[in-house]
């Protein structure tokens, strides 16, 4: 009977050890699952922030394109006016005045382009 008691005790101890290690393994898995869930949550928030930024940048880019288009059409209109005036100019003073108009139209074009870029950068950095 000694052997039978020894086998029973050994089986009991083995069963307790197996249960302990199984519980320990499940505890580790549970902790890893909690950590993974928190990381997924953080990554989801980060993705949402970047999507929001991307939408803002897209809106700013669309505004920039729109203002650039308007600036180009204004510049083209002024250029056509200057060309028309040049054709009608007869004196050197008139030609000088027309050159001033041309410089004005070019400076407006550059100013509008610069403003558009500055606005885009301002919106992108917010």
UniProtKB/TrEMBL annotation:
Residues 33-95 form a coiled coil. Keywords: Coiled coil. Pfam families: MbeD_MobD. InterPro entries: MbeD_MobD. It comes from the Bacteria. This is Uncharacterized protein. It comes from Turicimonas muris. The lineage of its organism: Bacteria, Pseudomonadati, Pseudomonadota, Betaproteobacteria, Burkholderiales.
